[in-house]
């Protein structure tokens, strides 16, 4: 296995943009706990509320429960701001409309790093990625660039909102070709508890005898071997500067 390069930690503000509640908790949350413990400011942005994610529950009820679970999950890892954009779960499409709403949040929160989930076609094997993940990840890359261009979505620039071109990199957690990693040995348990907070969603999946800790440990140990530590989380890094 190729060794993982350590991610830079010389930043202060990050914005996490993912399709659904729980997307960050399947691996990235332990890294976020590490960074908030360092005093970094991290904001979560959920494009949908995951309201289509529980088969036996009406979307209106699922929305309420899943938003509450995500707020608690974020609190566990030191994140106190969770934005819900309210787009419809399960039918997200890459395009201008999605870029627009993400660009607005980038301009509002002014991060140096933007974190999203794996948006490649697969998870590195036969299992195809979910369509919302792919749409959001692709839109994040473009929305970060849009946010810095005064003449793109210029109607947003009111009431003091300004362009923001200060995003240095986009990091995709769990990418099968991720070449960077973060040592999460000290914060692994916080990541587990953050996933456990999605109790209604996990129950709704119907995975018999599925254990969040066992699941996360298998992934984190493998990544840790590539860094020479007990537990790690992997990321694909996309530089946002021209020519990088």
Q: Your description of this structure?
A:
By secondary structure, this protein is of the alpha/beta class. It has one domain: Rossmann fold, CATH 3.40.50. 37% of the residues lie in helices and 18% in strands. It contains 7 helices and 8 strands. It has an 8-stranded mixed sheet, sandwiched between helices. Helix 3 crosses helix 4. The protein is globular and about 50 Å long. It starts with a strand and ends in a 5-residue tail after the last strand. The mean pLDDT is 96.
- Give the CATH superfamily: LmbE-like
- CATH fold description: Rossmann fold
Q: Helix proportion of residues, in percent?
A: 25-40%
User: What gyration radius follows from the Cα positions, in whole Å?
Assistant: 17 Å
Number of helices: 7
What is the residue-mean pLDDT, rounded to a whole number? 96
Report the sheet-strand fraction: 15-25%
Structural category: alpha/beta
Distance between the amino and carboxyl termini? 25 Å
Order of helices and strands: EEHEHEHEHEEHHHE
Shape: globular
Q: What strand line-up does the widest sheet have?
A: 1-7-8-6-5-2-3-4
Biggest sheet descriptor: 8 strands, mixed
**Low-confidence runs (pLDDT<50, min 5 residues)?**
none
How many distinct beta strands? Answer: 8
Number of domains: 1
Identify the CATH architecture.
Answer: 3-Layer(aba) Sandwich
The first-level CATH class name: Alpha Beta
């Amino acid at each position: 296995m190729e060794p993982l390069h350590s991610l830079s930690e010389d930043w202060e503000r990050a914005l996490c943009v993912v399709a659904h509640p729980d997307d960050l908790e399947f691996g990235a949350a332990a890294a976020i706990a590490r960074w908030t413990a360092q005093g970094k400011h991290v904001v979560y942005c959920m494009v949908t509320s995951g309201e289509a994610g529980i088969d036996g529950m009406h979307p209106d009820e699922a929305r309420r429960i899943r938003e509450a679970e995500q707020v608690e999950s974020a609190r566990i890892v030191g994140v106190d701001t969770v934005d819900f954009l309210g787009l419809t779960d399960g039918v997200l499409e890459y395009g201008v409309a999605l870029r627009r709403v993400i660009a607005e949040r980038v301009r509002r929160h002014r991060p140096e790093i933007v974190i999203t989930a794996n948006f490649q076609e697969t998870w590195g094997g036969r299992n195809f990625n979910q369509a919302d993940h792919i749409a959001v990840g692709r839109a994040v890359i473009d929305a970060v660039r849009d946010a810095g261009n005064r003449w793109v979505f210029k109607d947003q620039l009111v009431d003091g909102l300004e362009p923001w071109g200060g995003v240095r990199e986009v990091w995709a957690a769990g990418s099968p070709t991720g070449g960077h990693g973060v040592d999460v040995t000290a914060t692994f348990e916080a990541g587990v508890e953050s996933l456990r907070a999605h109790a209604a969603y996990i129950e709704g999946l119907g995975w018999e005898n599925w254990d969040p800790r066992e699941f996360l440990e298998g992934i984190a140990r493998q990544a840790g071997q590539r860094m020479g530590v007990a537990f790690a989380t992997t990321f694909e890094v996309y530089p946002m500067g021209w020519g990088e």
